[in-house]
Design a protein that fits this description.
The complex is a heterodimer of chains A (about 120) and B (about 210). Chain A has 4 helices and 4 strands, in the order H-E-H-H-H-E-E-E. With about 120 residues, chain A is of the alpha+beta class. Chain B has about 210 residues and is of the alpha/beta class. In chain B, about 30% of the residues lie in helices and about 25% in strands. In chain B, strands 3-2-1-4-5-7-6 form a 7-stranded mixed beta sheet, sandwiched between helices. Classes of the chains: A alpha+beta (about 120), B alpha/beta (about 210). Chain A: Interacts with TRM9. Chain A: Pfam families: Trm112p (PF03966).
Chain lengths: ~120, ~210
């Protein structure tokens, strides 16, 4: 699961209002190279939750992204490459996603998060 | 990539070896899948460089087609762990980078407007009534640009009405009618193979939701 996907996932338990972002507990991170696509990245920058991405990337062991980012920084190749690496190339292979409100744990195995709910959570 | 080439690659994918009838698991044939994604990209520009989600991805055929046509990020969603295993293997075989999430589409909560296009071959609702429209409504909430979906031609007016009235589609268009060949998969299937008429739909979500 790459961080672009993590940036879309929210806790889907009934009654939860603050289910995003899911907290990451790492067991295994894998890095996979992806072609650098500046136009795509600029497009994504406008849509993602940047703060959630920075926090997640730090937990995954990558500390290069600045705390705060402005659209003007997209002109910098250096920033764009760091953004690319954090968003697209870091994969949580094994670990857990934790609901920030209830503490409910969603396992991630072989890169696939299991968001299935129990009957009482629906 | 040419259509024939796409169809060939999709034809080589592994399919369900133990299909679950209650989930209406049927493979999306390479003929239908290739035409669906090829049209989505060539006529509408909805695939290359986009973020694409495959709802009820099963063995991954539609998502993989999107990845082959240059989608930048593809996520396949399914409720069944076994299918996701097969889908992962299929993606690996073709050296494609595809994400998967195991979940029930009815209680998916997706943040933001990151997904551009949803592609799907949803259950037709023969096992669990209304399953097809559940899928459609969620897809229209999640996609920011377009939803491509297959539904039986016999349900055409019902689909159009539900999409526009209940699922907040701003438009619903049948792109073309296809013959979907259903192989003899389940014990209750009497014929060796049957083909049913399906419509390939393109829905556009309402912008302010």
């Amino acid at each position: 699961m790459r961080l672009l996907t993590h940036n879309m996932l929210s806790s889907n338990i009934k009654g939860v209002t603050n289910g995003f972002p899911l907290r990451i507990e790492v067991e295994k991170v894998v890095e996979k190279s992806v072609d650098f696509n500046p136009d795509f990245l600029k497009n994504m920058f406008a849509k993602i939750e940047y703060k959630a991405l920075v926090e997640a990337s730090r937990i995954m062991g990558y500390a290069e992204l600045p705390d705060h980012a402005e659209p003007s920084m997209l002109e910098s190749d250096d920033f764009l490459r760091k953004f690319h690496h954090a968003l697209m190339e870091l994969h949580l292979e094994e670990g857990t996603l934790v609901c920030p409100e209830t503490g409910r744990r969603f396992p991630v195995n072989k890169g696939v998060p299991n968001m299935l709910l129990h009957e009482d959570e629906v | 990539m040419k259509l024939k080439q796409l169809e060939g690659l999709l034809g080589s994918l592994e399919q369900f070896y133990n299909p679950k009838i209650e989930l209406e698991q049927y493979p999306t044939g390479s003929h239908v899948a290739s035409r669906m994604l090829y049209t989505a990209e060539n006529s509408f520009g909805d695939v290359t460089n986009k973020v694409v989600a495959d709802f009820g991805c099963g063995c991954g055929t539609l998502g993989i087609a999107a990845a082959l046509l240059g989608a930048q990020h593809v996520v396949g969603l399914d409720i069944d762990a076994e299918s996701l295993e097969i889908a992962s293997e299929n993606a690996d075989e073709l050296e494609l980078d595809m994400e998967f999430v195991q979940c029930d589409i009815r209680n998916l909560r997706w943040e933001g407007q990151i997904i551009d296009t949803v592609v799907m071959n949803p259950p037709f609702g023969t096992r669990r009534k209304g399953a097809d429209m559940d899928f459609l409504c969620v897809a229209l909430k999640v996609a920011s640009e377009a939803v491509y979906s297959l539904h039986k031609t016999t349900t055409r007016e019902h689909v159009r009405r539900t999409a526009l009235r209940d699922c907040h589609a701003s438009s619903a268009e049948v792109l073309f009618e296809l013959r979907y060949d259903v192989p003899h998969l389940y014990k209750f299937h009497k014929k060796k193979e049957v083909d049913i008429a399906v419509d390939l739909w393109r829905f556009v979500p309402k912008k302010n939701r």
